[in-house]
Structures are given as structure tokens and as C-alpha cells.
Specification:
The relative contact order is 0.07. Strand 8 and strand 9 form a beta hairpin. This protein has about 260 residues and is of the alpha+beta class.
């Protein structure tokens, strides 16, 4: 029956697996509905599920657990599957929980606190019988060993957290340093590129000046050549005139 109920309410439910997380979640649930945190002292919990829409809760453990509540002198048995519908100050339609009264084991169907100020909690059977006990009887009492383990876990968690923070700080420091180095390199590269561009511009300008000078020299050479050609032509012309005059004189002498 419990398995079928779990299957029916599994959809959209919060589910957790593993003993440590399941114990933590079962304590969170009891705190959420304002019931004492020692009500569900299960061991080796396989799964915890909570369907908030329907209010259905289930806990599955590897084997049945019997717990003795010293303050009231009563043993309570928890089956491998415990289910209930929960609301503020109440667990109802419970399955998988039994309490021993005199010589008989009796199913517990409801656990509730009618008046929080009274400090009392009531356990009810499916037959309508009920017994009321002090809430303090079901408050989780840690043994010295449990306190020691809890303290060690807390110290270990704190140490782990500190190491993670230091690692994150170192990572952030390295990232910033890398970013700064990258920025510096980019600035150096930009400066070098700017310098190269300036050198290229200067070289281009010098090349233009040099080309202009070459052009000017070529023009001057061309002009000189023209002058030389004119002079050569004038010289040739004069030489021809002289030759012609010489010839004329010789002819006159012969005549």
C-alpha cells in the first residue's frame, strides 16, 4: 500500500537519495511543519520525497528501525517505508509507524500539536485512541560522540569553504594578473604598431621626396640634353658655313 501511495505522489515531488542528505531533509521537513526534530530517528535512509502540492511525504530506509524514547519509556518501530500527509503542527494518515503499549504494538496514524504553547504532542491510533506526551521527549538529543562528529564536520566544512574561497581568490588574482598582462601586451603591440605605421609613413614620405628629386634630376638632364643638342646643331651649322666659305675661296683663287 505504501509503495503504491509513493508511486501515486512521486510526480512533481522533491526527491533526495543518500543517507546524509535524506537525514538533513527529514529534519528540514520537521522544522518546516513545526514538529520536534526527534520524531523520525531513521537510519540508512535510501530516499526522502515530498510532494508539496498534495502534502504527501515518504521516507525509505534499508531496514526496519526500532527506537526507544527514554523520556516516555516507550519504543517506537519504523518500517522500511514510512509515509504521511503533512501540514503545520501535524502528520496524518501515517503508515509504517508503530508504538508499543504494554504488550501490544499499535499503529500510529496521527501525530499533532493542538496548542504549541502547551508543550504537548499527541499520538493517535486508527481506532481513535490517543496519548499525549511532552514535546521535549521527542527533541533530538545528541550524544557526546554525535556532538563531536558534528563539530568535526562543521570544522571540516569551514576548512573546505575557506580553501575554496582562497582558491577562488587565487584564481581571481591570477585572472586579473593575466588580464593586466594581456592589456599591457596589447598596449605594447599597439604602440609598436603605431611606431611601425609612423616609420612606414616617414619612409613613404622619404620615398616620395626621393622620387620627386629623381624626377627633377631627370627633367634637368633632359633639359641639358636639349641644350647640348641645340649647341651641337649650331656648331655643325657653323662648321658647314665655314666649310662652304672655304670651298668658295678656293674656287675664287682657281678662277
Amino acid at each position: 500500500m505504501a509503495a503504491q501511495m509513493i508511486a501515486n505522489h512521486r510526480e512533481n515531488a522533491e526527491t533526495y537519495t543518500g543517507d546524509e542528505i535524506c537525514k538533513a531533509k527529514s529534519l528540514e521537513l520537521l522544522h518546516e511543519i513545526s514538529l520536534p526534530d526527534g520524531l523520525l530517528p531513521l537510519e540508512d535512509i535510501i530516499e526522502v520525497g515530498y510532494n508539496r502540492t498534495s502534502g504527501f511525504v515518504w521516507l525509505r530506509q534499508k531496514k526496519k528501525k526500532e527506537h526507544y524514547f527514554k523520556s516516555i519509556g516507550k519504543p517506537v518501530s519504523y518500517a522500511t517505508e514510512v509515509t504521511a500527509f503533512v501540514e503545520k503542527h501535524r502528520m496524518k494518515k501515517i503508515t509504517g509507524v508503530k508504538s508499543k503499549d504494554t504488550m501490544l504494538w499499535v499503529n500510529i496514524s496521527d501525530i499533532f500539536i493542538s496548542d504549541p504553547s502547551s508543550g504537548k504532542i499527541t499520538f493517535k491510533t486508527p481506532f481513535g485512541l490517543s496519548r499525549t506526551f511532552p514535546v521535549s521527549a521527542f527533541v533530538n538529543e545528541e550524544t557526546e560522540e554525535e556532538k563531536k562528529r558534528k563539530k568535526e564536520r562543521a570544522e571540516e566544512e569551514e576548512k573546505k569553504k575557506k580553501m575554496e574561497e582562497e582558491a577562488e581568490e587565487e584564481k581571481e588574482k591570477t585572472r586579473k594578473q593575466t588580464d593586466e598582462e594581456k592589456k599591457m601586451m596589447e598596449e605594447v603591440e599597439a604602440e609598436e604598431k603605431k611606431k611601425e605605421n609612423a616609420e612606414d609613413q616617414e619612409k613613404k614620405k622619404m620615398d616620395e621626396v626621393e622620387d620627386e628629386e629623381k624626377k627633377k634630376m631627370m627633367e634637368e638632364n633632359e633639359e641639358e640634353k636639349k641644350v647640348e643638342n641645340v649647341e651641337d646643331q649650331e656648331k655643325k651649322k657653323m662648321e658647314k658655313v665655314e666649310v662652304d666659305e672655304e670651298k668658295k675661296k678656293i674656287e675664287e683663287v682657281k678662277a
